[in-house]
Amino acid sequence: MEGSIIWPQVCAVRSTSDDNEFGKVPQWLYPTDTLSLLGANRENHRRQRRQLNHAFSTAALHEQEHIIMKYADQFISELTARVKGGEALNIVDWINYTTFDIIGDLCFADCFHSLDGDTSFVHNAFIGTIGTAYSRFLTQFPLLKAPLMLTLGSEEVNVALEAGKRNANLGRLKGKARMAMGAEPKDGRRDFATYMLREGKNGERVLSDDEVQALSGILVLAGSETTGTALAGFAYLIARNGDKKRVLQDEIRAAFTDEADINITNTARLEYMNAVIEETMRMYPPASTQTPRVSPGAQIEGLWLPRGTLIHHYSRATYRNPQNFTDPDMFQPERWLSPDHPRYNPRFAHDRKEVFRPFSAGARDCVGKNLAYAEMRVLASRLMYRFDIEVLPGQDDWIDTQRSTLIMLKPGLQVRLKVQPGLSLD
């Protein structure tokens, strides 16, 4: 279903009971979906969301800001070390290592040590997510298992399926280990688990052990992979559009005289950076598809959708629709600028920006969207402040040739970085 229809008429509809909600398909991705925000019914979703809203509040975000800054420093340090050696590098890997380490620390007060060289969790997470997609496909169409094995190769499919099982178990085990440490295990520091383990007014835990474990796995993947995908798309698109890159670099370097000043609060004021991030997610949606909604039995656009009808949405189709956006296949951050910005272009004044919902819409939108924006702004600003970035030849179709399962299947992106004149290599 097209975004101009699904957002206001399905996702944003305020239901009064499970009977009239366009809920999500139970167990669409994992058997434990109904225990987490992914597939919980209306009542349980509201209870879980109320508990997690505290973890993702503005106050909590600023309380944990030093965690994001720590890994941003390490990210830039690792890239700088490779620039010294003059080597090209796969920027996708380094972005993923950073976003996974950040979310691990924010969730469990303990990172995955990917930037330190242990990349096993990140690697398994991506293979496992593909395996989850295969598993979902085979559940829906069991008779197609043989053709799938023949087309992709039985070894590839089996490896992915096993990785998917490990993914689910690792998330639960990580959550279980964190639960054993108590609500505030490290000198009173609060992480996401702190809020999940809090008691209600009656003195009892709001979320059960099973719910905490299920949510732990979802928060890790949703809080790392999608942010990493958006940042990889940012690196590709800004490097490929030199005029936009220069405008962005000028904005960042005019705003900051020292890298240490690049933080969550200050980067939120960068108008062109915000426009570039929005345009990146329009051109290259991190969540290309979402868990389908289920019709409770309702009329949409004059068509009756019987109870149980699955409603799918594919972001790219909406965001590249010329009825929604002028020059939809062109990277134009200017479309997101306010009329008082010097680079505002009235050519984009009639773009239907209301259909752009990279974090979904309504009561079941992404709880971590503010964290995602903050993380993207800080990491992208640090990258562009220190380096000039160039995509190596032979990758012109890096975005357009990618497949999507539950995530974008990103190949490596080989880039060359140059430290900006006047900046130290230390």
From TrEMBL:
<protein>
    <submittedName>
        <fullName>Cytochrome P450</fullName>
    </submittedName>
</protein>
<dbReference type="GO" id="GO:0005506">
    <property type="term" value="F:iron ion binding"/>
</dbReference>
<feature type="binding site" description="axial binding residue">
    <location>
        <position position="366"/>
    </location>
    <ligand>
        <name>heme</name>
    </ligand>
</feature>
<dbReference type="Pfam" id="PF00067">
    <property type="entry name" value="p450"/>
</dbReference>
<keyword id="KW-0479">Metal-binding</keyword>
<keyword id="KW-0349">Heme</keyword>
<keyword id="KW-0503">Monooxygenase</keyword>
<keyword id="KW-0408">Iron</keyword>
<comment type="similarity">
    <text>Belongs to the cytochrome P450 family.</text>
</comment>
<dbReference type="GO" id="GO:0020037">
    <property type="term" value="F:heme binding"/>
</dbReference>
<dbReference type="InterPro" id="IPR050121">
    <property type="entry name" value="Cytochrome_P450_monoxygenase"/>
</dbReference>
<dbReference type="GO" id="GO:0004497">
    <property type="term" value="F:monooxygenase activity"/>
</dbReference>
<keyword id="KW-0560">Oxidoreductase</keyword>
<dbReference type="GO" id="GO:0016705">
    <property type="term" value="F:oxidoreductase activity, acting on paired donors, with incorporation or reduction of molecular oxygen"/>
</dbReference>
<dbReference type="InterPro" id="IPR036396">
    <property type="entry name" value="Cyt_P450_sf"/>
</dbReference>
<dbReference type="InterPro" id="IPR002401">
    <property type="entry name" value="Cyt_P450_E_grp-I"/>
</dbReference>
<dbReference type="InterPro" id="IPR001128">
    <property type="entry name" value="Cyt_P450"/>
</dbReference>
<dbReference type="InterPro" id="IPR017972">
    <property type="entry name" value="Cyt_P450_CS"/>
</dbReference>
